[in-house]
Each structure stands twice: as C-alpha cells, then as structure tokens.
Amino acid sequence: MVTIYSEINKLGLFSRRNDFKVFLFFVNRTECHVHIIWLNFNGDPVIYKTIPPNNAFPVVTHEQHPWVFKDSRTGDRMLGNGEELFYPKQDKKNPHRPLIILLTYPLISLRQRALQAIRDSIERIEDIERSQIPSTLLNDIDEALALKETALEHYRRCKKFVNN
Question: pLDDT tens across 23-62, in order?
C-alpha cells in the first residue's frame, strides 16, 4: 500500500477502530484505471489497489473506514455507489455477504467535461497557446493541466516506491 494524494483529506477524516468486518467487492464500471484509496488511522490516503477497466477486486475492511476513488491517470474523482466518500456498512442480517461497490464516473457539467477532454489532449503547455481556445477557458485549462501533472508525479513516486 502506498500513501499519496495528500489533498484528498481536507476534512480531517480517518479510519476508526471497529470490530464490524465488511466484505466489499469493488467493480470498476469505467474505461479508466481507478485507484481505490483508503483513509488510514492517521487520515492519510493510501492507494489500496488500482483496478483496471471492467475489473473487480475484493476487500475485507471494517465499518468506520472511509474510502475514496480517483482516476489513476488524471486524479479526477470517481464515485463508489454514487458517493465520493464511501463508508462501508455491515449487513447485520448477512454479515459475510459481500457488498458490491460500483465504481463510476461522477455527473459533471459539460464545461467541466470539455476542460477534461482538452486537458487530456494537450501534451505541452505550448500547445495551448497555439490552439483556438477562448481566453476565458485558458486559466481553467492551466489549472486542469497542473492537477494532471500532480497526479502523474504522485503515480511516478508510487511506482518507484513499490519497485524498490
């Protein structure tokens, strides 16, 4: 497990000790690789697993353990059963039955989706200056590119850490 994405936990959330085990089955219903991120007992985000598109991964966790989800390439937020922040809850009638958590894209504005598409199509900052993008969007694109670069740098550091 590798800790990254310090900007995730701005609310001071963290896992709490709990005896109620919860069996989860994360199902990636997107076209991207999704980081499954657990907020540990200190509130640090930890990449627990990265799930490829249309794949699944089982996890044993506990109640009071928060989880978040991010696109591994861009750092864009994803949803788990429609929630940005997922807290598992044990089924008291059938505690050993796994809960299926569907990982999906969030509903975003057309403007935000357009910015994501532009961000993903631009390789170098110089490409923006030569594009025909309205000047009102250029600042937003600069911010989106900076977030993408931050996510990529975190991923590179994680790969080095895991490979060593």
Answer: 999 999 999 999 999 998 888 889 999 999 999 999 999 8
Domain locations in the chain as residue ranges: 2-104, 110-163
* Vertex 21: Cα angle to 17 and 27 (nearest 5): 115
Task: Name the pTM for this structure.
Answer: 0.70
CB atoms < 10 A from the CB of 91, how many?
12
Work out the widest C-alpha separation in the chain, in whole angstroms.
Answer: 61
Q: How far apart are CA 164 and CA 154, in angstroms?
A: 16
Question: What CATH superfamily classification does 2-104 receive?
Answer: von Hippel-Lindau disease tumour suppressor,  beta domain (2.60.40.780)
Residue-level length of the chain: 164
Q: What does the DSSP assignment read for 26-94?
A: EEE-SSS-EEEEEE-TTS-EEEEEEEPTT-EEEEEEETT--EEEEETTT--B-EETTBSSB-----SSS
